[in-house]
Write a structure and sequence with these properties.
single chain; 2 strands; about 5% strand; flat
Length: about 200
Amino acid sequence: MATVSHEPIQEASLSAWNGFRKSLWQKEIDVRDFIQQNYTPYEGGESFLASATERTRNIWNRLNELFVEERRKGVLDVSQIPSSITAHGPGYIDREDEIIVGLQTDAPLKRAVMPNGGLRMVVNSLKAYGYEPDPQVVETFSKYRKTHNEAVFDAYTADIRKCRNSHILTGLPDAYGRGRIIGDYRRVALYGVSRLIERKQQEKA
C-alpha cells in the first residue's frame, strides 16, 4: 500500500484517535497499519453459533436445485436491464420462508448486465452464453451514455496513451468486467475527507 507523509496532524484527528495504539498510521495514510496495531483477535470456539433453522435449510435446498440447473445451462437466466440499486423489482428465492430479502435481480441466480463498466464485455459475455444483446441497451451505451472505460480513457493524457499503446504501461482498462473504483471507506472515518483529498492532490502532482 502506497503511503504519503502528512504533517502536521490536525488537532481533531488527535482527539478522535484517543485510545488507539500509536504507530505509523498516525503519520501516514495507512489503514492496514491501523488495523494491525489495534485489532483484538478472537480465539474462542464456535459454541456460541446456532445451527441453521428449518426455514434456512428449505431456502438453501431450493438454491441447490437451481445451482444444478445453472451448471447444466452455464447461465440460468439473464436480465438485460442495466443494473443499478433500483433497476429491478423485488426478487425472492422462497417468499414464504424468507425473512431477509433482496436479490441482485428479480429472480434467484438471474444474472444482471453492467454496461457502465464497459459495453464490449457485456456484449461478448451475452453472446458466449447464447444471448443476443438488447439493441436498445447497445444503442444507449454506444451513443448516449458514457461508460466507465470511456471515462477512464478520457482522463488519460497524451503521454499516458502513448505509453499504453507501446505497452510500457499495462493493466489499464480495455473491457472492465467489473469496471468500478472500489472505495476504502474506512479511510474517511480514520483520516477525514480533507486530508485524503490533499493526499490525492500530492499523488497527482
